[in-house]
Design a protein that fits this description.
The complex is a heterodimer of chains A (296) and B (234).
Chain A lengths: L19 H39 E6 L5 H13 L3 E6 L2 H12 L12 E7 L7 H11 L4 E3 L2 H43 L1 H9 L4 H41 L13 H30 L4
Antiparallel strand pairs in A: 1-3, 1-4, 2-3
Helix pairs in contact in A: 1-5, 1-7, 1-8, 2-4, 5-8, 7-8
Chain B lengths: L11 E9 L5 E10 L4 E5 L6 H8 L7 E6 L2 E2 L5 H8 L2 E4 L11 H11 L4 H14 L15 H13 L5 E5 L7 H16 L3 E6 L2 H5 L4 E6 L2 E5 L6
Parallel strand pairs in B: 3-8, 3-9, 6-7, 7-8
Antiparallel strand pairs in B: 1-2, 1-4, 4-5, 9-10
Helix pairs in contact in B: 3-4, 3-5
The chains are: A alpha+beta (296), B alpha/beta (234).
């Protein structure tokens, strides 16, 4: 038998010489790359949704004009802390407020000179039902310019967008998986046609259909895993590069969140590579068995 | 090896077989013949007479247009796919064009029927070199078929056909590409296999060559098979 490529299965059919052996791994690599990035995006979006949900349930912001007096700020702090359901109410200092606007204005802008409003970060008990309407009335009585923001509207919009994005990614991954199946079906059928004489010979030597199908499925598994690992490696490099770029710019980008050592990301990529091999193998087996059943 | 060995009934029975390809004329008409266990037969006829088609019907490479093919007492028309596979495993075939797999070595070509049957590698390592040595191919085991001469390829094809010691051996023009001396040697090889209990049928266009042996003969002419009785005991 000819020396097979390193790691390639030993086959009676010369499937390793087919053109499919050259292009299929790269097609699968591209699909795994897209699916892997999609999966990681799903993970990140899921994490963000969780954070937003917790934020919806657990925080409020009270904003007052920059020139509000210290005495009035103390009154507001006291009012907030006395409100049932409020766990903590904290007045952000100038540095903390500046940090919040820095991503939009940049570090070079002297934010301390800007008339930034004063902000209260209010933590509430997620299980408690805070009377927001009553709190607004009380705040208006001590500070008419005060604005109570429960982030609900903005977060609900963001949440809706994120959920739509998730659906879109899942649909995209479904399309990628479908394309993978179609590609393997086409490749297996082509292989069947190309190697028809040897397949007929194997049949005449007493090979059952599953013996011949096994040749195709082992070849497909090998190509699928090869392509899958290439795609997963490329996706990992992309995530690392994007993560570094995101953290370097200090942008609140999802890809920068979670850290490079989130094992779920790398696990997902390995899973995507393994799934590509498995899908290719099962698809090839079923395609070949169906076709062989029609032969003599 | 070998499987269950020939059973009491007939090995092959063809009854009123007709065969046509597509809408063409019939190449075989009302063929009726029986091959008994342990028999040795020649099938003679000029090139194009339909010898290969007849062998194909026996090794289940083709289906008859009409008539009944019975192999090892099994009606092949009603046999399911698994049964047909099991029947094929009891048959060794030497194809006219050898049909060796080019990317496999001589050793792996010969080992193919054993691997298909799920034989352990140990058995393959023991039996295949022995058989290759017996057929004078001991030093060719690692070569590819396309590096061998026609006669050597033919012996590889024979080795592959007999490696599982089949119950029925069909050889299509096995002496067509070799000189008389080698042809005689090949027939002696088939006779040795036959003495082990394998039923043998050799198809050849060379009637004079077949006449040299005291074996039963069928002659195929214009699609009709007739037994030949020209002086040798039948």
């Amino acid at each position: 038998m000819s020396a097979p490529r390193l790691g390639a299965p030993r086959l009676d059919l010369p499937l390793g010489r087919d053109a499919s052996g050259r292009f299929l791994p790269w097609i699968i690599a591209l699909m795994v790359y897209l699916a892997g990035l999609g999966g990681i995006a799903l993970l990140l979006l899921g994490g963000m949704l969780g954070e937003w949900d917790r934020a919806l349930a657990g925080s409020l912001t009270v904003q007052v004009p920059a020139d509000t007096s210290a005495a009035r700020l103390e009154v507001i702090t006291a009012l907030l802390r006395q409100t049932p359901g409020v766990v903590e109410a904290r007045l952000l200092d100038g540095a903390a407020t500046a940090k919040l606007v820095e991503p939009w204005l940049g570090p070079s802008v002297a934010v301390e000179r800007l008339p930034l409003p004063r902000l209260f970060d209010v933590r509430i008990d997620p299980s408690a039902a805070v009377d927001l309407a009553g709190l607004r009335r009380k705040l208006a009585s001590v500070a008419p310019e005060a604005q109570l923001d429960d982030h609900r509207l903005a977060l609900l919009r963001l949440r809706g967008f994120a959920v739509e994005l998730q659906r879109l990614i899942v649909a995209g991954m479904g399309v990628v998986a479908g394309l993978l199946v179609l590609t393997v079906v086409f490749t297996a059928r082509t292989g069947l046609a190309v190697h028809q004489p040897v397949i007929e010979l194997l049949h005449l030597l007493g090979a059952p259909d599953r013996y011949i199908a096994r040749q195709f499925q082992r070849h497909a598994l090998w190509l699928g895993l090869r392509g899958g690992l290439i795609g997963a490696a490329a996706a990992a490099v992309t995530v690392i590069v994007l993560g570094r770029a995101g953290s370097g710019l200090d942008l609140p980008l999802p890809v920068a969140a979670g850290g490079a050592f989130d094992w779920r990301r790398w696990g997902l990529l390995v899973l995507a590579a393994a799934a590509a091999g498995l899908v290719a193998m099962v698809t090839a087996r079923l395609t070949i068995l169906r076709r062989l059943a029609r032969m003599l | 090896m070998g499987g269950s060995g020939p059973e009491a009934g007939v090995v092959v029975r063809l009854e009123n077989i007709g065969k046509r390809y597509g809408s063409g004329a019939e190449v075989l008409h009302d063929v009726t013949l029986t091959l008994d266990p342990g028999g040795f037969y020649f099938l003679t006829g000029v090139s194009g007479a339909g010898k290969t088609t007849l062998l194909k019907l026996i090794y289940l490479g083709e289906r008859p247009s009409r008539g009944i093919v019975t192999l090892f007492d099994t009606d092949t028309a009603t046999a399911d796919r698994a049964t047909q596979t099991a029947l094929r495993r009891r048959i060794g075939i030497v194809f006219q064009d050898f049909r060796l797999i080019e990317h496999l070595s001589v050793r792996d070509n010969v080992a193919l029927p054993l691997r298909i049957a799920g034989a352990p590698e140990r058995e393959i390592r023991e039996n295949v070199p022995e058989l290759l040595g017996w057929l004078g191919l001991g030093d060719k085991a690692d070569l590819r078929p396309n590096t061998l001469s026609g006669g050597e390829q033919q012996r590889v094809a024979i080795a592959r056909a007999i490696v599982r010691r089949p119950d029925l051996l069909l050889a299509d023009e096995p002496t067509g590409n070799v000189d008389d001396e080698i042809a005689m040697l090949l027939v002696r090889v088939f006779e040795r296999i036959n003495r082990l209990g394998t039923t043998v049928m050799i198809a050849t266009h060379d009637v004079a060559f077949a006449r040299q042996f005291e074996h039963e003969r069928f002659h195929l002419e214009q699609g009709v098979v007739t037994p030949v009785t020209d002086g040798y005991p039948q």
